[in-house]
Amino acid sequence: MVNKEIIEILVDNDLKVTPQRIAVLEVLLGNTDHPSAENILQYMRINHPNVPIGTVYKILDAFCKKGIVTKVKTDDNAIRFDPVKEPHHHLYCSESDRIEDFYDDELNLLLANYLKKKKIPNFTIESIKLQLTGKFKNNK
Amino acid sequence: MVNKEIIEILVDNDLKVTPQRIAVLEVLLGNTDHPSAENILQYMRINHPNVPIGTVYKILDAFCKKGIVTKVKTDDNAIRFDPVKEPHHHLYCSESDRIEDFYDDELNLLLANYLKKKKIPNFTIESIKLQLTGKFKNNK
DNA sequence: ATAATTGCAAAAGCTTTGCATGGCC
DNA sequence: GGCCATGCAAAGCTTTTGCAATTAT
Question: N or C: which end of chain B has fewer CB within 10 A?
Answer without folding.
Answer: N
